[in-house]
UniProtKB/TrEMBL annotation:
GO biological process: 7-methylguanosine mRNA capping; mRNA export from nucleus; nuclear-transcribed mRNA catabolic process, nonsense-mediated decay; primary miRNA processing; RNA splicing
Residues of the MIF4G domain: 30-242
Record carries keyword Transmembrane: no
Gene Ontology MF terms: mRNA binding; RNA cap binding
Oligomer and partners: Component of the nuclear cap-binding complex (CBC), a heterodimer composed of Cbp80 and Cbp20 that interacts with m7GpppG-capped RNA.
Region span, Disordered: 541-574
Keywords for the protein's UniProt record, in alphabetical order: mRNA capping, mRNA processing, mRNA splicing, Nucleus, RNA-mediated gene silencing
The family this protein is said to belong to: Belongs to the NCBP1 family.
A cellular-component GO term for this protein: nuclear cap binding complex
Localization in the cell: Nucleus
The name this protein goes by in its record: Nuclear cap-binding protein subunit 1
Length: 669
């Protein structure tokens, strides 16, 4: 081998080594820059402001070699770490103040990502990109006017025809959810345009269909917390923010410390961005109903207050917690640790917020974002990491869910049962079971009260009772008496049931009339009892008033007696109860006599038409039962004789029936 050839090979090795070393050094610098950008805002011995200022200087110095790398990392951070949005917008603002061209390139890069996300139906990415662009207005990177134009273009989508409502909903939601970040800046510089934007959104929401809402509710009842549709809830929160002059207390704004630097920077204008037209292959986020389980009364009095349901801080906190869950759900321990390290935990009852958000995600309809067991495993890790408070809050939440289980959607009920079984299995099935002891014993009263809310329902109960016990008359009488005593069945329902067509075959049987008279006596005794109690209360009140003018020697005795005397309000309430009972009593007699008249008149009319004798065994029995009611309860019926004569026993009534009434009236003539 010649010397020349050996020398050439040595030069080649040297060049290759230098190239590899240069590539290695560049890679190290890129990794270091990426680490610095990713970790900015984390706990440090230096302040956030000094870290941002130092990082901006480092990045500005490296723009020549690593421009594309820095652009890519910053854009990815804006999307993947939306909770640090304002930190990265401040960093971009400082870079824009140092290098205007880089600021323009970054805006173009973000706009491209925003457009690509819309076309690819990556709706969360698109929303985070929009939020980042909006916050760049606060950092004097973008002009207010160009952002307002973008908002207007997005809201124009809400007026499109022939597109799914979920498409229009998302574009309105994207704009609304961005306003907490940039609303104050727009209010100060573009107030009229902002007002017009709010009016446009309000018009859309007022004419928007919400037929889907009942299907997405976890609870059918709005007590104690209204279950609001997500756009309606956010709209109420943004309106409240507007009333507060767009001043919120949750979003960190590090760019305020650099206002003197940022305000000197030149601003960029967004290009015209038009939302891509709808395509049948596009899939949009489904609407939701905001899950509410806690309010400030559920939290400890000595701790921080839970923001109200229409406070924008509530939305921002829940949004932030969901972002943490969605970023770390694949590793339950990291997720629980991140949730408990929430940056603003000193200002809120964090445990309550976390539990409410996790249950909201678990019960999310039609389906949760992640596997149901994922949320259960995160709750278990939270209990392990925070054993002093989290288990108590979770137990309180479980009690609330258990109490409201009767109004819970069937799907949510299943998920609650599965979660609770899974949770208990991880804690040796230990629970305060004595609190749920009542579940082990059957309690029919509450069920009967629900089943017997109307008179039709009460009659249905009586029909089913008869269908079951029709061969056991004594049981029918006993059960009817029990229904009356427990207040499950009203007297009027029993009267209507006895005279119904279904009971025609039983009409002449003795037990039926035993039930009817039992019913009347129950009502009579109730009225008599209330009358006696009212008379006694009036007498006590009269005596107390007559003693009020007695000598001072009797003052001590009068004080003791005055303690026993009822107040005038109590007497008034007793009078109202008596009036109600008497009205029910009169109504009962009216029903009974009206039914007698109807069946007797029908019988007499049919016999007259057919030309047959009316005086059958059935007629004798029924007219005799009518007389029996008059005579057996004559004292009570006498009170309403004038009403009966006016409404029922009128001169045009058949004489055979009318004679029975006249005979009764003549008893006291």
């Amino acid at each position: 081998m010649s010397r020349r050839r050996v020398h050439e090979e040595e030069d080649g090795y040297e060049r290759a080594y230098k190239k590899r070393r240069r590539v290695s050094e560049n890679q190290e610098i890129e990794d270091r820059l990426e680490s610095l950008i990713l970790r900015v805002g984390e706990k440090s011995t230096s302040s956030l402001e000094s870290n941002l200022e130092g990082l901006a200087s480092v990045l500005e110095a490296d723009l020549g070699l690593f421009r594309s790398k820095i652009l890519r990392i910053l854009t990815e951070c804006a999307i993947r770490m939306p909770e640090k949005c304002t930190i990265y917008t401040t960093l971009v603002g400082l870079l824009n103040a140092k290098n205007f061209n880089f600021g323009g390139e970054f805006v173009d890069y973000m706009v491209k990502n925003f457009k690509d996300a819309l076309k690819a139906c990556k709706w969360d990415v698109a929303r985070y990109s929009l939020r980042f662009l909006a916050d760049l207005v606060n950092c004097h990177v973008l002009s207010c006017g160009s952002l307002m134009q973008l908002f207007d273009n997005m809201l124009d989508t809400a007026n499109e025809d022939g597109v799914p409502q979920v498409r229009r909903d998302w574009y309105v939601y994207a704009v609304l959810s961005t306003l907490p970040w940039v609303g104050r800046e727009l209010y100060e510089k573009k107030e009229q345009e902002l007002d017009h934007l709010m009016v446009t959104i309000e018009i859309f929401l007022n004419k928007r269909s919400k037929k889907h809402q009942p299907a997405l509710r976890v609870w059918s009842s709005d007590t104690p917390h209204p279950q609001e549709e997500y756009l309606d809830c956010l709209w109420a929160q943004v309106r409240k923010l507007r009333q507060d002059n767009w001043a919120e207390k949750h979003i960190p704004r590090p760019y305020l410390a650099f206002d003197s630097i940022l305000c000197e920077a030149l601003q960029h204008n967004l290009p015209t961005i038009m939302p891509p037209p709808h395509h049948e292959s596009y899939s949009y986020p489904l609407p939701t109903v905001v899950f509410r389980m806690f309010d400030y009364t559920d939290c400890p009095a000595e701790g921080p207050l839970l923001p109200g349901s229409h406070a924008i801080e509530r939305f921002l906190i829940e949004e932030h917690l969901r972002q943490i869950i969605n970023n770390f759900f694949y590793e339950r321990k990291d997720c629980a640790a991140q949730l408990l390290n929430f940056p603003y935990k000193a200002k809120i009852p964090l445990d309550y917020c976390i539990v409410e958000v996790i249950f909201g995600e678990l019960f999310r309809l039609p389906a949760p974002r992640n596997l149901e067991i994922c949320y259960g495993s995160i709750l278990i890790e939270l209990c392990k990491l925070q054993p002093s408070t989290m288990p108590q809050v979770l137990a309180q939440a479980t009690e609330i869910l258990f109490r409201r289980i009767d109004s819970m959607a069937a799907t949510a009920f299943d998920r609650f049962v599965w979660w609770f079984a899974y949770h208990l299995s991880n804690f040796q099935f230990r629970w305060s079971w004595e609190d749920w002891d009542s579940c082990l014993h059957e309690n029919y009263i509450s069920i009967h009260n629900v089943l017997a809310e109307t008179e039709e329902a009460q009659i249905c109960i009586l029909r089913n009772m008869y269908a079951l016990w029709k061969n056991h008359y004594q049981m029918i009488v006993v059960l009817t008496d029990k229904f009356l005593k427990t207040g499950i069945i009203e007297c009027s329902a029993i009267a209507n049931w006895i005279f119904s067509k279904e009971m025609a075959s039983e009409f002449t049987k003795l037990y039926i009339w035993e039930i009817l008279h039992l019913t009347i006596r129950k009502k009579n005794k109730h009225v008599t009892k209330l009358s006696t109690e009212l008379a006694e209360a009036r007498e006590k009140l009269r005596r107390a008033e007559s003693r009020s003018g007695s000598s001072s020697e009797d003052e001590d005795n009068n004080k003791d007696r005055n303690r026993e005397k009822p107040s005038e309000d109590v007497v008034e309430r007793m009078e109202e109860k008596l009036e109600t009972a008497q009205a029910d009593q009169k109504n009962l007699f009216l029903i009974i006599f009206q039914r007698f008249i109807m069946i007797l008149s029908e019988h007499l009319g049919r016999c007259d038409t057919d030309g047959i004798d009316y005086n059958t065994h059935w007629y004798k029995w029924t007219i005799g039962r009518l007389q029996q009611v008059f005579l057996t309860h004559h004292e009570q019926v006498q009170k309403y004789s004038s009403t009966l004569e006016t409404l029922l026993f009128t001169p045009d009534l058949d004489p055979h029936i009318l004679d029975v009434f006249h005979q009764f009236v003549s008893l006291r003539a």
